[in-house]
Amino acid sequence: MKATRANSPRMVTPLNVHQMVRLMGQWGLGEGALHTQLASHLRMLVVSGKLAAGVRLPSERSLAEALDVSRNTVGSAFDELRGDGILTSRRGDGTYVSSARQFLGVRGDDRFESFLANAPSIGPRIDLRSAALPGLRLVVDAASVVGPELAPLVDSHGYVPEGLPALRVEVAKYYSSIGLPTIQDQILITSGAQQAMRMAAVSMLEPGSVALVEEPSFRGAIEVLRAAGARLEPIRRGPYGIETSELIAAVRRTKPKLLVMQSTVHNPTGSVMNTGRRRQLAITATNLGLTVLDDTTLADAMIDEPPATPMAAWGSSVITVGSVSKSFWGGLRVGWLRADPATVAALASIKAGEDLGTSLLAQVTTARLLPRIDEARAERSRVLGAARDLVVGSLTELLPEWEPVVPVGGASLWVRLPIPIATTLVQRAERLGVQLLPGPTFSCVDDFDDHLRIGFAASHAELLAGVRALAEAWRIVGNRG
Predict the structure, then answer these.
(1) Which keywords has UniProt assigned to this entry (predicted)?
(2) pTM above the 0.90 mark?
(3) Where are the domains of the chain?
């Protein structure tokens, strides 16, 4: 394919420094000088097409600060790539990618890079990026006795786009038991919550449509909306959730097609909107004619409170997304979407054309698990509570100037730093053996560089070692502000 020149009118949006760092991933953990490793990784990003022709890179100074290296390191890497014709620079105009394997048009975001396989790193790593929980023993018990339910299904073709009837019934009971009366026809089974969100977004959004997104927000929501070509407008989430007045103002200002939010356990903050706030937002959205995509994936990972009634109990324009990823095990890849029957039927048609249906084996297992949801909630509460208290206590002792938001649920801690250097801090922590996610990962406008998310799904020993290493990283870079 013919390369696109840097001065071509077919220019893409410049990369900001936070996007660039996310693309870089684990770049400086190998052998050799840092500038050599940096040049090699940048070359790989260009060759793979992740850095498209015409992209303007961040300045050498800003990239050096974010990567926690000297400006000479970045300058030497850029010089090498300029010499190879991969980059080109013009005085006063910046540095551009001269050529790439392909030109990327509408694409997703880069916030899921931490889930991808990276190059082998040097030495042991403590991964505090993920809030994904290990599976419960209940999953093994359920999977070992699915034979009788599975046997008659094997006689069919096995394609059930809307989902196994027995599981749809169980999901309907699940919602009815927490205050949201639901029937089978309101449930669509999906291959995880991410697919449910994506199908709903694609069905309601056209490229360029406006979608309101909580700030901060789950990175999966940002990924889904970016991939759908939506124009994301942030709406700030306060300590108690979105203010009704701010929602009304945002709708009038931006004319959105969709609001994506988490009314129960919020990722990354771990906060939960109270019942009054959920009710008022649902009523307001319905009155405004605004569809709400309410991601309740973490609803069964409460630590201090009982399960919350979903927003859809008070608003007909609310579509609810859920899954068993946090309650039982992410490896099942079973999620669902709750909406009115007509919407469910329409989305089932989309799913039929996409994958013909979610694995029946996983659905049979999940149908056996859901009646035991109270056992799963109790186990999650016990394990998550102990891990949360351990991390909060360690931070209070070692980093007293930090301001953690003590979560009500979930497996992550949202922490405010005294100065906005989270991206740089994460780079330094990486070299000390700890992997974390900086605040901009959870912002559709790359805000919150004064925040950090610490996942506490790891073992207690790893959590303690990780916080100690993080304190050492802060000692090194924290005085730069």
Answers:
(1) DNA-binding, Pyridoxal phosphate, Transcription, Transcription regulation
(2) no
(3) 17-105, 126-135+375-480, 137-372
